[in-house]
Each structure stands twice: as C-alpha cells, then as structure tokens.
Amino acid sequence: MPAASKSVGILALQGDVSAHARATLRAGGRPVPVRHRGELAALDALILPGGESTTIAKGLVRQDLFEPLQAFAAAGKPVLGTCAGAVLLAREVENHPVPSLGLIDVVAVRNAYGTQVDSFAAVGEQPAPGLAELRCVFIRAPQLRRPGEGVVVLLRVDGWPVFVRQGNVMATTFHPELTEDPRVHELLLA
After folding, report:
1. Exactly one of 36, 39, 52, 83 is catalytic; which is it?
2. What is the CATH classification number for the domain harbouring 18?
3. 83 an active-site residue?
C-alpha cells in the first residue's frame, strides 16, 4: 500500500498532535486524530506522541484504551511512540512510574536528561542504515535502559539507545516531529 493511502492515527489525548500530523504528511501518510477505541479499526499505523506521560496515561485509563492499543500492536500494525509515547510503550517505567503498555522490552526512565531548561539537540550515533546524520531534539526526555533480546537499537546518543524497534513497535526518546527530517515517520509508513 502506498504511504499516501495509509491512515496514521495520532493519539490525541495530550501532546503535540499537530506537529506529528505535519510530519506524517511530509512522510506521505494521512494523519487522523484518535481519542476513542472505535477509531483504531480504520488505521494502518499509530503514533503515541510526546507530551506529559502521566497525563496521557490517565487519558488512556479514562478512555479505556490500554487493551485496544495492545491489541492494535498485537495485530502487527506499526506503532511509534515518541518521548512520553516511548515511556508508555515500555515494559517498565522508573522515576515516578506510570502505567505502561509493555509493548517494548525496555525500562524507560522518565525525565532522565533533566528539566525543560536542559533540553538539547544532538546528531545520533551508530545509526542503522538510512539514519545517518539524524538530528534528535530532546525535551525532558526519558532514557531507555536494559533493552531485552528482541529490541533492536537503531540510534544512540552518548551511548544510550534513543531509537529502538521491537517487531512492529518503535520508540524514540526524542521528538522527530520537531525537525523537517521525515525519516522516522517514513519508517513507520514503510
């Protein structure tokens, strides 16, 4: 299926939904805001955006979305979590834990790089093919630690995994939607 015909849901409970919508369009997909479980059925892929993981987790509980999101991923559909979205995909969360979906075998440490004033950008290291010179924007970013056997590290910064994939589920600790580079969203659509 061509990327342009793929519907990419963007969890619209909190976070920068509009920036992900623009990035999805740049990558050739069709963005669709998602707030309810019934909206998942028509999607080809899904993004859990950055934002505040506690707020998003509460929204998932309120909207009864934990099991539907797990079923979406279990059906083999591509899922991308960025920053807070990566926290929500982890098997375990440290530093003020929140409920998570357990879709990627990593431990996410919330706000590991510090507060908002500690935000920074860096070019990724040890990139997987096609990700050379990828600029990563970190805002109150988590660190991903203790990746399990099935987790592939696609990119690192300062030795830490910042972009990982396990099967059809990907997570970045950075905000790919805040640059003009479409490669992360293109991987979701590939």
Report:
1. 83
2. 3.40.50.880
3. yes
Q: Which domain holds residue 155?
A: 3-189
Q: How many domains does the chain have?
A: 1
> What is the β-pairing status of strands 169-172 and 104-109?
unpaired
- Is 177 annotated in the active site? yes
Element spanning 72, H or E: helix 66-74
Question: pLDDT tens digits for 158-167?
Answer: 999 999 999 9
pLDDT tens, position by position, 21-51: 999 999 999 999 999 999 999 999 999 999 9
Annotated active-site residue in 175, 180, 185, 186: 175
Q: Check 36, 136, 149, 177 and give the catalytic one.
A: 177
Per-residue DSSP letter, 5 = G
How far apart CA 173 and CA 124 sit, in angstroms, is: 12
